[in-house]
Design goal:
216 residues, alpha+beta, 4 strands, 30% helix, 12% strand, globular
């Protein structure tokens, strides 16, 4: 900067310059005479310019972040477990099956738990399991639940049933069924120590929208 100042600035009266080795930069006030002229310079650091490439990268990063957040909030399919057998066995012949379901429903109501098991007559998801359908008497009834360990227990308890699992995007999809009317002929003589199942006792366990209120 010193080289750019005019010589008359440096020759201004009253200024003493003491050259030193490795002088430190200091502010310097120069008294100017009326006849002296001096050109003053001011410097300011240039502002950084935002390049178009960096702005594009920022926009792309924002879009990718939105995509990641939206994908993380997408609902994943739920897994359902089931045991299935012909309707005669599940609803009319199996001892104590009715009591087990009503007892579990009562327990859920006492604990304010949401019901997670249903009886599905002629479920549509069986179309995904040809190995099961060819071994199954029709009409068929499935006990479906989101609780895998409980379905495993029920498989061991019921014994003569087939078991599998599948995924569905919604409860309605999982419990979809073909309309089928179930009727069983009453036996001429009932010799068991417990009362015979009443017709349509399974109503409270049918999928939402088609079930009756259970009295437990």
């Amino acid at each position: 900067m010193a080289a750019t100042l005019s010589q008359r600035c440096w020759a201004a009266p009253g200024v003493k310059l003491n050259p030193t080795r490795n002088p430190k930069p200091k502010s310097l006030s120069l008294p100017l005479s009326a006849n002296s002229t001096c050109t003053l310079f001011s410097f300011s650091p240039p502002f950084p310019k935002l390049s178009s490439s960096s702005s594009v990268r920022t926009v792309v990063a924002a879009v990718e972040s939105d995509q990641l957040s939206s994908s993380s909030t997408e609902k994943k399919p739920s897994k359902y477990y089931f045991v299935v057998a012909n309707a005669k066995f599940m609803l009319d012949e199996e001892e104590h099956f009715q009591e087990q379901l009503f007892e579990r429903l009562r327990l859920f109501k006492e604990r304010n738990n949401e019901q997670d098991f249903w009886l599905v007559i002629e479920p549509k998801f069986l179309d995904k399991f040809p190995d099961i359908t060819r071994r199954l008497g029709r009409p068929a009834v499935a006990l479906v639940s989101t609780n895998g360990p409980w379905i495993t227990f029920m498989k061991l308890r019921l014994d003569r049933v087939l078991s599998e699992s599948f995924e569905a995007d919604s409860l309605e999809e999982a419990l979809a069924c073909s309309p089928t009317k179930i009727e069983f002929k009453k036996p001429d003589k009932w010799v068991a120590p417990y009362p015979k199942y009443e017709s349509e006792w399974w109503g409270p366990f049918l999928p939402p929208g088609s079930k009756k209120e259970a009295k437990v």
